[in-house]
Amino acid sequence: MYDYFMPNVNFFGRGSVSVTGERCKILGGKKVLIVTDTFLRGLRGGPVEKVVNSLKKEDIEAIFYDGVEPNPKDTNVADGLKIFRAENCDMIVTVGGGSAHDCGKGIGIAATHEGDLYEDYAGIEKLEYPLPPLVCVNTTAGTGSEVTRHCVITHTKKKIKFVIVSWRNTPLVSINDPELMTGKPAGLTAATGMDALTHAVESYISLGANPITDAAAIQAIKLISGNLRQAVAYGMNMEARENMAYASLLAGMAFNNAGLGYVHAMAHQLGGVYDMPHGVANAILLPHVARFNLIANPQRFADIAEFMGENIDGLSVREAADKAIQAIEKISQDVNIPMNLKDLGVRESDFELMAKMALQDGNAISNPIQGNEKDIVSIFKSAF
Ligand SMILES: [Fe+2]
Question: Which of 19, 277, 303, 334 is the most exposed place for a label (fewest CB within 10 A)?
Answer without folding.
Answer: 334
